[in-house]
Structures are given as structure tokens and as C-alpha cells.
TrEMBL record:
InterPro entries: Glyco_trans_1, Trehalose_Metab_GTase, TreT_GT1. Residues 318-493 form the Trehalose synthase N-terminal domain. Residues 552-723 form the Glycosyl transferase family domain. One of its GO terms (molecular function) is glycosyltransferase activity. Pfam families: Glycos_transf_1 (PF00534), TreT_GT1 (PF21269). The keyword Transferase applies. It comes from the Eukaryota. This is Glycosyl transferase family 1 domain-containing protein. Belongs to the glycosyltransferase group 1 family. Glycosyltransferase 4 subfamily. GO terms for biological process: glucose metabolic process. Homodimer. Coiled coil: none annotated. Keywords: Carbohydrate metabolism, Glucose metabolism, Glycosyltransferase, Transferase. It comes from Nematocida ausubeli (strain ATCC PRA-371 / ERTm2).
Length: 768
């Protein structure tokens, strides 16, 4: 089945003449408006209990004859009939108060839920002065900055005889919200049922965010149930039909390339997260996953975010690239979260340079991780061992000058202005580590935090026997440390072995990598979404000439970049060992277990193509002749749900990195109830309970990897035992809300001293 991308726009208002709740839905195929449907629900006064629940059963009118079937799928929504009389208590006596339920002014505010049955929704006492029972409290968050900026420019004026829904309060607001959500749910359910369309996004006027509970419920049902991205645009509120068509077109404009959102880089290389207009989850949605102490957590988050705003503090993150790799994934999530609680946060990236990225990957990243076992060789030894056509990994003076020139250019042309008004700067990877000394010189009062996210082989630092004849590692580390010595904090993954001895103990803070439990990478996928992304995954494989994945059979997956330190060859050999064991144990049974290598590419990793081609060449060897048709290798576009679906449907996930920072894909696999097999390297064993929810194996012990895979894949009782040992709650402490609170507390200079285990200590406060 080929899915046709569809974009929707909805507009709504209260018609005061009838009176009625009017809802307009417009359908757009990415270029053209296919049609619009307006629903009008008459409102009557009633105090009868139970009449507010809208029991809606949508009916599909007969389609016109002589129309193409696929086209009818696209416009099917125009033939959905929904009829409902709305009964609301005291409709005409409702006080219309524009200030009653306005969007949060301070970013994150505690308020009373509209559905609260304990508190009085009609009290005139300000929310901030009421005592709200914890079970009735919810936390409202602001819309992202670009949406807010647009709202400040455009004053919403509804058409004559119409009122915007966000001016109502109390029971009326609650009733209207519930009716709208149920109506939209029924319409979307009918439109997508057995339909060859994929609704990519839905545009809606941002003024509804003034009624934050409506905004939150709308985001939840669109994103979590239908895998639709909610897009909020300031609108001048023309007629409902014109407005819904405008919103559908605006929504479609955010997805010009194969239904992918545009990576938006703004002025001064600032990353505009979610294109500025997409907002699919609110802070309130995270509370259930946090657990029993979610209220206390949110109050602490509110306090820290208010303090940041009151003191006009600004946090700025700097990294090499905005897409591809773990740093980019985490920053999109973190910045999104911080913005909606009104923290002044920005994320800037480097202007790409192929020549610099070649240096930072081959001569910095690989040397720090000792990817090719040559980091303790001297310059002369490296040159003596070079093969024809190879380049030495020695970081030359010209290389150093090129890196510094690149950093200086980015600083003067793009970053200087933001840095000088920032109170906290986070250097998020080694590519920008040389920025520390520049900042300290020009803005000495800025708090500088360096985050080391890879496994530095600190055991290889200081191995030079002659200061005039350094090893590649010492030559590199001296270059990096010359700048990093100016950092106020050195944030590292939570294991001491990766912190160089040069770093003073009082500067070290341990922090695990993070993941977002509600984004496309981790959210539960419904059957329709799962089917769509499985087909999309295989379509990408087919278009690239790669084997597709049989999602109805067992398969092993490793999600990672195509990188020499990711242990790709080790897993391939272990898989071959599994094949041999299976053939010996079950000679009459076909071996049909798949193996999938996949991940996102990154512009700062030019080596990925080389590694991918090396894997392709190795698979052509006679050894893999019988099983190569079961092996899939693919570099995926930046669609989080593709990684979600390939992990969620896997039987076992592996991470056999030979050098690693934390690699949170291990945790993300466990969050999806998928057992894992990892090497005892870096931060990998910190995420796994050996023999309980997976296995930790010594690096290079390929035979044991094969044995554990065989056991998991052929012994159903044992597999169930390991699977039952997975407790997703074990990993909540590293998710985005905790990461956000960590960075707020790190930015709070009044919290001193901060111990090395600061992250763990404050996270446990809410989890025990």
C-alpha cells in the first residue's frame, strides 16, 4: 500500500446567533486544498447531569460515483457526517472573561484542572492564592518562542457573530474542550480507518493555547494516538473556512521534503527546534512517567525556571551539528522542553566544514577512543606504519590551526553576540572544545561547562617517554586541555575512567546521556503507525538496493552510526556464529533470524560512508553467502519513528561498541521491553543488569555473544525470564525532565558546592 501524505487545518469558534460550536476541517495534499468540511453543533442550556457527554457516532455518506479510489481516500473526510446537540450548563450566564484562563506568563504555572471536582472552578480568588489539592493540580506551559512572537504581532479578531473558544472558563470551557476532542477523535478515527493516507501534520490557530488544557489534550490525542504533528500558527482569524485552509497550507509548508520536517537553522547558526511551530507535548504529559513524586518534581522545576527568568539568565549550547548522532537528538529534546517552561535557552551549531570534520573525526574522535589501536604511537611510528593512500592520524600544527581558525570564524561571525549576553555556555562536544579559551578571554563572567560525551581512553594519556616525541594521544590531549582548562565544569558520563587526570576533581560532574520518553523515538506506536513506519523502513531499503526486514520474524538489531568503534564486525561475526550453532542444533530447520544495522547519518562524520562500504564488501564474501539475504544495513533519514519501530519490533538489541560513551540506545531498547546484549565498555554496562534484563560480555568475546544470542532466540522460557526482568521505570531518571532540571540546577550558581554525583543525588530524591 502506498500512503498519500495529507495535511489538515482546523478552525473553530462559537457562533453566538444560533448559538453553536462550529468546526471547520480543511484537507491539503501538500500542494492543493482538496476540500473543506464545516460542522455546526447547536448549543442548548441544560443542567441535567450526563447530557454533556457527547456520544458521537460518525457516519460516512456515500461517495460520488466515477472517482478514482485513491483520490476518494484523500477526500474521504469530506463525507463524514457528525451530528450532535451540545448541552451545557448555564451557557448564556457564563461570564466571558479573557483573563480567566490565559496562557502562562511565566513559562510554567500551577493551575487547577478544569475537570477538577474538588475545587470551585467559579471562584473569583486568583489561582495563585488558592490552595489547590495536589490531585487537582496541573502544570501549564507556554508555547515555544516563535509562536509567542507571532501572537504578539497578530491580534485575533473573530468574524462577526463569532467568539473564540479560549475566552470561556469553568464548566463551559471544560464541556467545550471535551466535545471538541471527542469530535476530532471520532473524525480522525473514521478518516484513517482502512485508508491509504498518512496525516503528517495538523495546523491550528495558536490562540487556542490560551486555554492550555485544550492545547494539551489536542497535542496528546494527535501525537500519541494518531502520530500527527500538531502545528500552531498565529492567525488573523478570517472566516472559519478560510482560516482552516490557511492553516492546512501553513502546516504543509513545514514538510517539503518527503514529509520530513525541515531542519531550520536561523540567524547566527541558531537551531530552530521543531521549525518553531510544532509543539507535540506539554510538561504535564510527562508527570505520569515520573511517578508518585511528580508533583514535587514539577514544583522544583517551576522554582528553578522562575529563578532563571527572574534573574534574566540565558543558557546557550554549542555543538558541531544539528542533526545525526546522540548529541543532536538530546539537544532537540532538551531545548524543546526548556523553551516551553520559558527558559531563555538557545542552541547554536558550527558552519559545516568538510576538511575540519575530517580532522575532528579521524584525528580527534578516533584517537581519543583509540579506535585503531594506534593512539600511543609517536608521529614517526604512525608515519612508518602507513599503508599506501592512508593519512596519518597525527594532529599536525596545520590541523590545529585549521580547527582554531574554524572556531574563530564561527565565533566572530555567528556566536559572539549570543555568548556575551549568556550567563551559561555549554560546549557539547570535542569539536567545539577550543571555544572555551576564547570565551574566557572575551566574556570572563560566563559560566563555561564542557560536556564530554565519548569514552576518552584516559589510560593512554601520559604514555609519552619523551616530551619532544609525544604519542598521538598526548599531542591531541595537550591541544584540547589548553582550552578546556578554562571550563568551570567538566561534565562526563558516570564512570571515572573516562575523566583525564588533568581535570581537577571539583570540576567533575557525572551525568548520564538522556532520552525523551514522549518523542518519536520512544512513544508507543499504534497499529496504524507501526504498519506505516515498517513499510516506510522497507521502502527506504528497497530504494537503496538493500534487503528489506521481515517484521513477522525474529531479528537482531544494532542502532548506531557506521563507525569503526561501534563493533559492527564483531556483531557480524557473532551473527555468523549464531547461524552455525543453529545449523548444528537444528539441522532440519531453516535459519530465518534477521540482522539489522541501521542509524542516522551525521554531517560531521565523513567516515560513515567508508565503514558502510566496507561492511557491504565483507558481506560479499563466501562466508556469508547463505545468510546475507537476512542482513539489512541502511542509513536512515532523520525520522525518529523509524528507529522506534525497528527497535520496538526487535527480538534482541545489541551494542558491541569497542569504545563508547553511554550510547542511550541500550536504554531505549530496554524501555521498549527488548532484551539487550552489550560489551563491558564505557557506559554500556551501567544500563544493563547482567542476567536480569540482558547480558554484559567482555569486549572481543564473540563466541559468548553468539552463545547468548542463541540462548535468547531459541529458548522461549529463558527469553521470557530476561524480558520479564526489564523494568522501564528503572530508566526514568535519565529522561528529558530530569536532564532539564539538571541543567537548570547546574546554571544556578547559588547551589554550591556540587558533588560529582550531583545528578544521581537529586534524581533519586524524586524516584525513591
Amino acid at each position: 500500500m502506498v500512503y498519500k501524505p495529507i495535511f489538515l487545518g482546523i478552525s473553530l469558534g462559537i457562533n453566538t446567533k444560533k448559538p453553536s460550536l462550529d468546526l471547520s476541517i480543511s484537507i491539503n495534499d501538500g500542494l492543493f486544498t482538496l476540500g473543506e468540511k464545516t460542522y455546526s453543533f447547536v448549543i442548548v442550556n441544560s443542567t441535567a447531569e450526563g447530557m454533556r457527554s457527547p456520544m458521537i457516532s460518525p457516519q460516512v455518506a456515500p461517495f460520488p460515483e466515477k472517482n478514482d479510489a485513491l483520490e476518494m481516500d484523500e477526500i474521504r473526510g469530506l463525507y463524514i457526517n457528525i451530528e450532535k446537540q451540545i448541552s451545557l450548563p448555564a451557557y448564556f450566564s457564563t461570564v466571558i472573561d479573557k483573563s480567566a484562563r490565559s496562557a502562562p506568563k511565566y513559562g510554567l504555572e500551577e493551575e487547577e484542572s478544569l475537570d477538577c471536582e474538588v475545587c470551585s472552578a467559579d471562584t473569583n480568588e486568583p489561582i495563585s492564592e488558592q490552595s489547590i489539592p495536589i490531585r487537582c493540580a496541573r502544570f501549564a506551559s507556554r508555547s515555544p518562542p516563535i509562536i509567542r512572537a507571532g501572537e504578539d504581532v497578530i491580534e485575533c479578531k473573530m468574524p462577526e457573530d463569532y467568539l473564540p473558544i479560549d475566552i470561556f472558563k469553568g464548566e463551559v470551557a471544560s464541556g467545550l474542550i471535551n466535545i471538541l476532542i471527542i469530535t476530532l477523535d471520532k473524525w480522525l478515527g473514521e478518516y484513517t480507518r482502512e485508508n491509504a493516507v498518512k496525516i503528517v501534520g495538523l495546523g491550528v490557530a495558536s490562540n487556542i493555547l490560551n486555554l492550555s488544557e485544550l492545547g494539551d489534550k489536542l497535542k496528546s490525542i494527535l501525537w500519541n494516538k494518531y502520530d500527527i504533528l500538531p502545528c500552531f500558527f498565529p492567525s488573523d482569524c478570517a472566516s472559519l473556512k478560510s482560516q482552516s485552509e490557511f492553516l492546512a497550507r501553513k502546516c504543509a509548508s513545514l514538510f517539503p521534503n518527503n514529509n520530513l520536517t525541515v531542519l531550520t537553522i536561523g540567524e547566527h547558526n541558531k537551531v530552530v527546534v521543531d521549525s518553531g511551530y510544532i509543539w507535540y507535548c506539554a510538561v504535564e504529559h510527562y508527570r505520569p512517567s515520573i511517578g508518585e513524586k511528580s508533583y514535587e518534581f514539577m514544583v522544583d522545576l517551576l522554582k528553578e525556571s522562575r529563578a532563571m527568568a527572574d534573574e534574566k539568565q540565558k543558557i546557550t549550547f554549542f555543538s558541531s551539528t544539528a542533526q545525526g548522532g546522540g548529541v543532536a537528538l538530546m539537544r532537540h529534546s532538551l531545548v524543546r522542553y526548556l523553551q516551553i517552561i520559558n527558559v531563555d535557552v538557545a542552541w547554536h551549531v558550527c558552519t559545516p566544514s568538510t576538511s575540519v570534520f575530517n580532522i575532528t573525526k579521524m584525528k580527534v574522535h578516533n584517537v581519543l577512543q583509540n579506535a585503531f589501536d594506534n593512539s600511543i604511537q609517536t608521529k614517526g611510528e604512525l608515519e612508518a606504519n602507513l599503508q599506501e593512500g592512508e593519512e596519518s592520524v597525527w594532529l599536525s600544527e596545520d590541523d590545529k590551526a585549521k580547527i582554531d581558525g574554524w572556531i574563530e570564524s564561527n565565533y566572530t561571525q555567528h556566536w559572539k553576540e549570543r555568548i556575551q549576553v549568556s550567563t551559561v555556555v555549554v560546549l557539547d562536544d570535542h569539536q567545539v572544545s577550543r571555544l572555551a579559551k576564547v570565551i574566557k578571554k572575551d566574556a570572563p563572567n560566563v559560566l563555561i561547562i564542557y560536556r564530554s560525551h565519548i569514552q576518552i581512553r584516559t589510560d593512554l594519556i601520559g604514555k609519552s617517554t619523551d616530551p619532544n616525541n609525544l604519542t598521538a594521544m598526548d599531542n591531541l590531549w595537550q591541544f584540547l586541555w589548553e582550552s578546556l582548562t578554562h571550563a568551570d565544569y567538566f561534565v562526563s558520563h558516570p564512570f571515572e575512567e573516562t575523566v583525564p587526570k588533568d581535570v581537577p576533581a571539583h570540576k567533575v560532574i557525572f551525568q548520564p546521556a538522556g532520552t525523551n520518553q514522549l518523542d518519536g523515538l520512544n512513544k508507543p506506536l499504534g497499529l496504524l503507525a507501526k504498519t506505516y513506519y515498517q513499510r516506510l523502513f522497507n521502502d527506504i531499503c528497497t530504494r537503496n538496493g538493500e534487503n528489506t526486514v521481515d517484521f513477522n520474524r525474529k531479528y537482531i538489531v544494532q542502532v548506531a552510526r557506521f563507525d569503526p568503534s561501534k563493533g559492527i564486525n564483531d556483531l557480524l561475526d557473532a551473527y555468523y556464529g549464531l547461524f552455525c550453532m543453529h545449523k548444528k542444533a537444528f539441522p532440519e530447520k531453516e535459519f530465518d533470524i534477521g540482522l539489522v544495522f541501521c542509524g542516522h547519518g551525521s554531517v560531521d562524520d565523513p567516515e560513515a560512508v567508508v565503514i558502510f562500504h566496507a561492511l557491504s564488501k565483507r558481506l560479499e564474501s563466501e562466508r556469508f553467502q547463505e545468510i546475507r539475504h537476512l542482513i539489512t544495513k541502511i542509513s536512515l533519514p532523520p525520522v525518529d519513528q523509524l528507529l522506534n519501530v525497528i527497535l520496538r519490533n526487535a527480538y534482541v538489541a545489541c551494542q558491541l561498541s569497542t569504545a563508547e560513551g553511554f550510547e542511550v540506545k541500550v536504554t531505549e531498547s530496554l524501555m521498549k521491553q527488548v532484551p539487550v546484549v552489550v560489551y563491558n565498555v564505557g557506559g554500556l554496562p551501567l544500563q544493563v543488569r547482567d542476567g536480569v534484563n540482558g547480558y554484559i560480555i567482555e569486549k572481543g568475546n564473540i563466541a559468548e555473544v553468539s552463545s547468548r544470542l542463541f540462548q535468547l532466540l531459541t529458548d522461549e522460557k529463558h527469553y521470557k525470564h530476561i524480558k520479564d526482568g526489564i523494568n522501564p521505570k528503572d530508566f526514568i531518571g535519565i529522561t528529558t525532565p530530569f536532564q532539564a532540571l539538571f541543567w537548570l540546577k547546574m546554571s544556578n550558581r547559588s547551589i554550591t558546592p556540587k558533588s560529582q554525583r550531583y545528578y544521581k543525588d537529586f534524581a533519586e530524591k524524586y524516584l525513591k
